[in-house]
């Protein structure tokens, strides 16, 4: 979940030089401590140790979004560093909530499902080799290494401007898709019993992931910084970027056991909160995330610590809880 620090580009056929630092993550990803050399199709890997220098020959000028996609797809194919770098189609955006955050939200949803719906969810998940709803929330991210799912990259997010108050598909959702449209499409597929079970099972996997993703505020971030991926920050002395901070660094400071966290959150719920939260539609979830992105996530300082954490700890917990409640409501309606 760690992104490229800098991309230096020269057009007119000159090579693109990409540099990435593993600083701050060496203790988590041991591969960052190693020096590795190798070759990719059309890509020279000059060196990988605490930094990586990738030269990608291109013969035409590309806009920043397509550049990010091309570079990240090339890097992702270096399988021995996949734990350090995550690809995302078109914008090169980092993946969604970290795996444990997805699992926590999925477990909250599971505990709120009606028993017959739990049975149907298990049946559909089994068709795709998945065993639990909690783990199923990570499936769409796991598919990023599968070229057959390259088209899914842009569906994990939507880029919105600061001055924005309501969703207009023709204006806000690009031709290649966005997260709000993906939720609606897969919700309809899951409900449609004229489709094959395997089609509905895949729709379920996408739906779970995208409902959880839309509750991560930085998945509605600015296009110009790729949802915070280009906003470099230091969090308790660790170098990262704003998107990865919300994906992983903030949640992991207070979620030591995702299943225990989920159970505690469900135990604290009352009927009124569940009904109030479940009543919203995806447009509302999007508005909430957009507001939180600009009120809580984006900041004027790049050195963050206790004050930023204290401000946002409960926001993270709230969004995981809301994502779980709403996912349960969507599945209960679609599968009952």
Q: Could you characterize what this model shows?
A:
The protein has about 325 residues and is of the alpha+beta class. Helices cover about 45% and strands about 10% of the residues. It has two domains: about 5-80, no CATH class; about 95-335, P1 Nuclease (Orthogonal Bundle), CATH 1.10.575.10. It is built from 13 helices and eight strands. The strands form two sheets. It has a five-stranded antiparallel beta sheet, covered by helices on one side. It has a three-stranded mixed beta sheet with strand order 7-6-8. A hairpin with a 2-residue loop joins strand 3 (about 35-40) and strand 4. The model is unreliable at about 1-90 (pLDDT under 50).
Overall mean pLDDT: 79
Compute the number of structural domains. Answer: 2
- The level 1 CATH classification of the largest domain is Mainly Alpha
Strand portion, in percent? Answer: 5-15%
| CATH homology superfamily of the largest domain | P1 Nuclease
Strand arrangement in the largest pleated sheet: 1-2-5-4-3
- For the report, how would you describe the main beta sheet? 5 strands, antiparallel
Give start-end ranges of low-pLDDT stretches: 1-92
Count of DSSP strands? 8
What is the gyration radius calculated from CA atoms?
20 Å
> Kindly, what is the distance between the CA atoms of the first and last residues, rounded to a whole number of angstroms?
36 Å
